[in-house]
Amino acid sequence: MTTTALLSCAGRPVGRYTYLPAPGGRPYLHPVTTLGGIPVTEERPADHLHHLGTSVAVPDVAGHNFWGGRTFVRDRGPTALDNHGIQRHLGWKFRDPDGFVEELSWEADDAELLREHRTVATTGLSDTAWALDFSFSLTNPGSSGLSIGSPATNGRPGAGYGGFFWRAPKEPSAPAVFSGQGDGEDAVHGRVADWVAMSGDGWTLVFAGATEETRRDPWFVRSTEYPGVGSSLAAAHRLSVPAGATVVRRVVTVIADGRLDRAEAAAHVRRAACLTGFRTTA
């Protein structure tokens, strides 16, 4: 059975999407590469076996773990629980080499908690850069409300992860991270910014919030412990999703060969915004 789909940009292969994961998993992109062929994602690294390339991962949906690994429990810390859900692929609404529209069901304990509409598309920016446009809509199909949380909302300060998440490859030296306002993990982690960049050995990723709601979410950034960037749905407070309501987020990521500086990163974001139709102040 085919379980993966290939993504291309301007005729060049740039990613593989695994959409029928094993039970307890979620669909994800890996490997994602630059146009020059450098891998910029990691799959099941030794330091965090549940990190899966580029995905939508949430550690607490009404108490169920859609992130993987242990669950942070208030006053107990990280705890192994039998509370893992699965993001089940329901089918394609559209699919071609440059992108797709997918329907998914977030399920736990034989119940559907969320129905997701996911859109992924590639756009060429230059001979050395392209953009991954990743949007997701999470609808509560039930008759009662639920909420989305994070380790931070459950008592672990600074750990507000959950939502769009990108695990980059670990290299001998930690990657550089920066935004339009500052440099280093302390300057970008947990902060709101139009875009955040991570630059490693011969590659740069620039993550831009592509809706007003997404730009209001703080960035979750790790560079020293491991290289990862995410947009936080519940950084400090639980996110309520009433019955029938929908949460929509969109992140456009520039994937570039070479190490970009701040001005170059901002210029790539502006070009990506022009070509993919989102607004930016970069």
Keywords for this entry:
282 residues; mainly beta; 9% helix
Commentary on this structure:
An eight-stranded antiparallel sheet has the order 8-9-10-11-20-16-15-14. The chain is built from three helices and 20 strands. It is mainly beta and 282 residues long.
Question: What would you say about this model in short?
Answer:
This protein is mainly β.
Oligomer: single chain
Largest sheet data: 8 strands, antiparallel
Count of helical regions = 3
- Spans of 5+ residues with little confidence (pLDDT < 50)? none
Number of DSSP E strands: 20
Find the structural class using helix and strand composition. Answer: mainly beta
- The order of strands across the largest sheet is 8-9-10-11-20-16-15-14
Q: Can you tell me the overall shape?
A: globular
Into which percentage range does the β-strand content fall?
over 45%
Rounded mean pLDDT is 96
**In sequence order, what are the helices and strands, one letter per element?**
EEEEEEEEEEEEEEHEEHEEEEH
Radius of gyration: 18 Å
Draw up the topology in text:
Blueprint: E1 4-9, E2 12-18, E3 28-32, E4 54-61, E5 64-66, E6 71-73, E7 77-79, E8 86-96, E9 99-108, E10 111-124, E11 129-139, E12 146-149, E13 163-167, E14 176-179, H1 185-188, E15 195-200, E16 203-209, H2 212-216, E17 219-222, E18 228-231, E19 239-241, E20 246-257, H3 262-276
Antiparallel strand pairs: 1-2, 2-3, 4-5, 4-12, 4-13, 6-7, 8-9, 9-10, 10-11, 11-20, 12-19, 13-18, 14-15, 15-16, 16-20, 17-18
